Amino acid sequence: MYIVPKDGATVTIFAPYDCKNNCPFCINKKDYKDNPAFDMNKVIKSMEVMNKITPNCDFVITGGEPLASIHLLERMLMSIELMNLQGARHKVFINTTLPVEKKDIYILNKWKNVITGLNISRHVKDYVVESNDIFLSYLQIPVRINCVLYTQEEATYAHEVVDRFKDFSIVNGIQFRDNYVGVGFDNLYNMESNKILKELLKDFNKTMNECEFHYSSFRWDCQIAPNIKFHRTMCYSKLTYHNIVDENNNPLEDMIEINDVIINPRGDILDDWNEHGGILDLAQYKEGIKHK
Fold this sequence. Notes:
alpha/beta, TIM Barrel, eleven-stranded mixed β-sheet, 8 helices, 26% helix, globular
């Protein structure tokens, strides 16, 4: 049986097209290259399926690049808007490099009542093609800057990223991220040996004792300052419990924790990321929600 969060797992929807970048830390590129087909109608139907099961779940639209085909992005947003008008309460986040023309900013602003926030990629090195920072001033949607620190050396320049965006009122946070590719069950919580985190804290004149850590079964955050985090997670998130019990001493053997539900570009609903995922058992998923 599945263990599912109270409001349902986050539903991550893959955008129709791959991006033009080749970031060394990307965990999605292979999925686009191996499975190039896209079925918008099936994607929308799968979104509607998840809405019926968990009408309060978060939707994250990622890629690839969601803004590469903005008219298809608008179809997804229109579908979510209708769900919310009918009583659902979905928050919507878009992961993007913001490689846009000025007119695309106005299209995004048109959906400001549907889009909860934009997670915009900005890195120390030129891994992505970046639009002019001035575009951020035109946005009417809250922004979080996502900055992957691929190497220990890049962490020494983290403060420059903060300084770059400190005067943009629309930016309400900066999340530095570890390189997920090398993170698994065996080393997820090994903070003492995390050289990137150590270098990052050194750059901000902080120690681990001065930071606040938030843990879950598959990720953790280090709160460095009110609007600055370091985030670490596995590139897969499905957990299977063996020989342990819940708070009522009931055995959880072979229980599977579902933290992310994936709708891939073909519209398949998967229970995990990339090659780690399989088709979500909807009956088990509904049962997991019922037992919350």
